[in-house]
């Protein structure tokens, strides 16, 4: 296949995960994003999925041009959403990553708008006065560097064990046979070597540590056809007012996105910091080198983004909403999930979350008996009070 060429320096890559049958949605995302994407694809049945993948990519030129695909082969597991996310993050062409799910669409021009706000990632004690109208409380007292060896221990049961992973560029599918094996003569270094387009070159010459900033991209949902969704904020607001677009999960889990402060977003002209509260599950742009990986014990449905955002907050991240940005979930029929019902999977995930919360607090020297962000304490965690 023809090697995709990206002829400019890019700042941020979308990282997302999908199955082969949903690649058309990721292709629509690529048509809007028009910048690098790192896409993990879950291969459940190689003999079926690999030929189908090759066939689909012949029809998706934007995906072929912008996206690097990374295949994860698994056996006897629920959908390994966080394994897939970590694989995509690790193999992103840029250090700054934008966490997305496959059913979302960005507006045209979002990459360049985010890039134009990159000075926010350089905030420190010497220049914070320039951002006094954007931040809540100036400089955080929390640690601004990721601690060595601070990763949460990630455990897999034998039933959830990933048996084979491979990462590769989408233009090398012809190197893969139906069993999912890569030709041993294929040299990955020739594709991941000198042609890097990786992020920033500015120096922080005074050695003052920067704040850890994550951009919040406001999340909405719509049942409109993708071709009728807006590409600018003015049109977006009109669709919100006419109820053609609504804030994500507003009727299911209001606290999951309410910290974004949608009324303020409508009026805002400048980026604004928000106060993180538990169960917030924002779609974020951040520097992957500053963040812990997603916890790979979480598989199937439930709490995968919420728990990661909580870990970021405990690690000292500040959350800044970009007012001209948004993404829209294209509503569809409920997806079928492997194994138990979604409700059962969510309760299974909650058991893991109830371990993540005290673990990350302990690793950052916080008292597990005191609340930081309105998160549940141990004796109240395994309940339905989160929603």
Automatic annotation (TrEMBL):
A Pfam family matched in the record? Glyco_transf_49
UniProt-recorded Gene Ontology molecular function terms: glucuronosyltransferase activity; xylosyltransferase activity
Topology with regard to the membrane? Single-pass type II membrane protein
Any one biological process term the GO annotation gives: protein O-linked glycosylation via mannose
Q: Where in the cell is it found?
A: Membrane
Q: Does the record bear Glycoprotein in its keywords?
A: yes
Gene Ontology CC: membrane
Q: What is its main location?
A: membrane
**Superkingdom of origin organism:** Eukaryota
Keyword Membrane found: yes
- Keywords in alphabetical order: Glycoprotein, Membrane, Signal-anchor, Transmembrane, Transmembrane helix
Q: Which InterPro entries match?
A: Nucleotide-diphossugar_trans (IPR029044), Xyl/GlcA_transferase (IPR051292)
Q: What is this protein called?
A: Uncharacterized protein
What taxonomic ancestry is recorded? Answer: Eukaryota, Amoebozoa, Evosea, Eumycetozoa, Dictyostelia
């Amino acid at each position: 296949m023809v090697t995709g060429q990206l002829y400019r320096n890019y700042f941020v890559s979308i990282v997302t995960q999908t199955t082969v049958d949903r690649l058309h949605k990721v292709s629509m995302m690529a048509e809007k994003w028009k910048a690098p994407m790192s896409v993990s694809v879950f291969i459940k049945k190689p003999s079926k999925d690999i030929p189908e993948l090759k066939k689909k990519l012949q029809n998706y030129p934007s995906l072929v041009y912008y996206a690097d695909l990374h295949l994860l082969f698994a056996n006897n597991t629920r959908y390994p959403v966080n394994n897939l996310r970590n694989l995509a993050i690790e193999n992103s062409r840029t250090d700054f990553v934008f966490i997305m799910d496959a059913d979302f669409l960005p507006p045209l021009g979002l990459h360049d708008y985010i890039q134009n706000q990159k000075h926010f990632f350089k905030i420190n004690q010497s220049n914070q006065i320039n951002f006094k109208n954007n931040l809540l409380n100036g400089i955080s007292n929390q640690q601004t560097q990721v601690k060595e060896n601070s990763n949460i221990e990630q455990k897999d049961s034998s039933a959830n064990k990933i048996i084979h992973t491979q990462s590769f560029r989408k233009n090398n599918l012809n190197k893969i046979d139906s069993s999912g094996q890569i030709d041993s003569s294929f040299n990955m270094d020739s594709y991941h070597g000198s042609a890097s387009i990786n992020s920033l070159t500015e120096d922080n010459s005074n050695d003052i540590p920067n704040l850890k900033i994550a951009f919040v991209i406001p999340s909405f949902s719509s049942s409109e056809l993708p071709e009728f969704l807006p590409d600018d904020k003015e049109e977006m607001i009109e669709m919100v007012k006419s109820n053609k677009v609504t804030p994500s999960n507003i009727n299911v889990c209001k606290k999951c996105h309410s910290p974004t402060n949608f009324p303020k977003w409508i009026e805002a002209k400048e980026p604004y910091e928000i106060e993180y509260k538990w169960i917030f599950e924002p779609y974020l742009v951040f520097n992957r080198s500053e963040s812990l990986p997603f916890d790979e014990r979480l598989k199937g449905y439930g709490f995968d983004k919420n728990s990661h955002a909580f870990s970021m907050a405990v690690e000292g991240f500040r959350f800044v909403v970009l007012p001209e940005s948004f993404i829209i979930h294209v509503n569809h029929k409920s997806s079928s999930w492997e194994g138990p019902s979604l409700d059962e999977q969510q309760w299974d995930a909650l058991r893991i979350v109830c371990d993540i919360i005290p673990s990350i607090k302990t690793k950052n020297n916080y008292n597990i008996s005191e609340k930081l962000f309105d998160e549940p304490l141990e004796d109240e965690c395994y309940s339905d009070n989160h929603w």
